[in-house]
């Protein structure tokens, strides 16, 4: 899915050929323990709600399974702090997701998605108000819905 791991010159040449010479971004490889997402929503009045942390598992560079809630109050508090800081600094309205690598109980931001996100598809049945409905509520100026979970949930990404 447009990604390659480069360990030597041959890997670089193969990646360049595979990715067809398009503009590329080189990132440092981070050996992480696991990946978490925090899905947040900010309304027009600055009110913020958070869905619980979501544990993500990948296969071949593609998200395969997301499980929620991932219960770790220390990591959740840190993720919420980072998300709120970004939402407020940008005066962002709507749903935003941040993916984090967790390395030795430290969060390192991997991706910021200013939109509903596939790691939050579980919210359709697993939360009182889904990320999709809350995004619409936020941009329409309506009160935000509850992000409370209704059960333990998982999303399995079936790609045909």
Draw up the topology in text.
Elements: H1 9-18, E1 34-42, E2 48-50, E3 54-59, E4 62-68, H2 73-90, E5 94-103, E6 106-113, H3 123-126, H4 131-140, E7 153-156
Antiparallel strand pairs: 1-2, 1-3, 1-5, 3-4, 4-7, 5-6
Order of helices and strands: HEEEEHEEHHE
Shape: globular
Quaternary form = single chain
Give the amount of beta strand, in percent. Answer: 25-35%
Mean pLDDT: 93
Count helical runs.
4
What is the radius of gyration computed over CA atoms, rounded to a whole number of angstroms? 17 Å
DSSP helix fraction = 25-40%
Beta strands, count? 7
User: Which structural class do you get from the secondary structure elements?
Assistant: alpha+beta
**Distance between the terminal alpha carbons, to the nearest Å?**
14 Å
Largest sheet: 7 strands, antiparallel
* Uncertain residue segments: none
Structural overview:
This protein is α+β, with helices and mostly antiparallel strands. The protein is 26% helix and 29% strand. The chain is built from 4 helices and 7 strands. Strands 1, 2, 3, 4, 5, 6 and 7 form a 7-stranded antiparallel beta sheet that branches. The model has no long low-confidence stretch (mean pLDDT 93).
